[in-house]
């Protein structure tokens, strides 16, 4: 068996190509799918044409690699016509490549200029761990087991094909030909898009990246979920809410996917201007390296005139209410929680001094902690204080997420 198809050579059903070292196999199956198998029998890449009638796969003299049905109609094509003399080869590294006289024209991981990926279809990283799929009207980048890494914002419109335009713009189109999403990279002729072995999908021009999904990972598979410690570290008071000291209570909560953890609440007592340690934390907690949502929220409340049980109950309600919001609704919910607390704490300058929620996901955590092992931020908060309390409070809060 050969490792290549030269011009005008073809594969019939149940025929295959075998890499020279014998480890990789490309098979035209009876179900119509052309599948690349790795040692052990796992599928690495496919044309996603199963269920369709395919009688042969031919490396045409014009450079196009095409799957045809028994009626002579094309079912799938590499889109590399216009390159006479090109050939298809299955390499010892497991990559399937079409070479022309000037070099590679197509790989299973790449869309070159003017090439189209039709649905259902996929680009697969060379090591087989990551795939960009057009499937069931959607486009997404995922692990090989379909755990999501990135999804373009197509405004819920159906995607039927992806085109790497010669001007460098990578565009997703609906069935009617209208664009539903674009990389926004025109003006870069010759650019191509590829799915890398690190999980990142990148557009390159002349060897330089011009766009990326920023989804690189050091994990070997989606099941190797990294663990994280979520911390509310400290806050600094530059101006208290009360005239002299604030009696501060702090709540800290974390939600991973649909799992809301019980908020942690701490009474820090009477505090004046300066730095104050909180040291509330959750974890280590496992978070899949997918787009599972991750939320952490916190509230700091000056409450010197309600008993601790009342304050704890109100902060717990606030934490749970915040966790129901994300995206565009988050700002409104934070504002609503703040107004609620201000309305309940009107005596002697009591009221909120900091309320916020951090919204991220498992992919962002994986990416942002892959180098230093930590992501951290300090945010500033100012609320209007009662007229008899002097200046408005000025707090700076620091949180962190640590990958042990």
Helix-residue proportion: under 10%
Mean pLDDT: 88
Number of strands: 33
CATH architecture verdict of the largest domain: Orthogonal Prism
Largest sheet: 5 strands, antiparallel
Say what the CATH topology of the largest domain is.
Agglutinin, subunit A
Low-confidence stretches: none
Distance between the termini: 50 Å
- Beta content comes to over 45%
- CATH class category name of the largest domain: Mainly Beta
Q: Which structural class is indicated by helix and strand composition? A: mainly beta
Basic shape: elongated
**Tally of separate helices:** 3
The CATH superfamily label of the largest domain reads Bulb-type lectin domain
Cα-atom radius of gyration:
28 Å
Total individual domains: 2
Report on this structure.
This protein is mainly beta and 404 residues long. It folds into two domains: 4-212, Agglutinin, subunit A, CATH 2.90.10; 227-402, C2 domain (Immunoglobulin-like). The protein has helices at residues 308-322, 330-344, 362-369, and strands at 4-5, 9-12, 16-18, 25-28, 34-37, 43-46, 56-59, 65-68, 74-77, 87-90, 96-100, 103-107, 110-111, 115-118, 121-124, 130-135, 138-143, 148-150, 161-164, 170-173, 179-182, 192-195, 201-205, 208-212, 227-239, 246-256, 259-260, 264-271, 274-286, 293-302, 351-361, 374-382, 394-402.
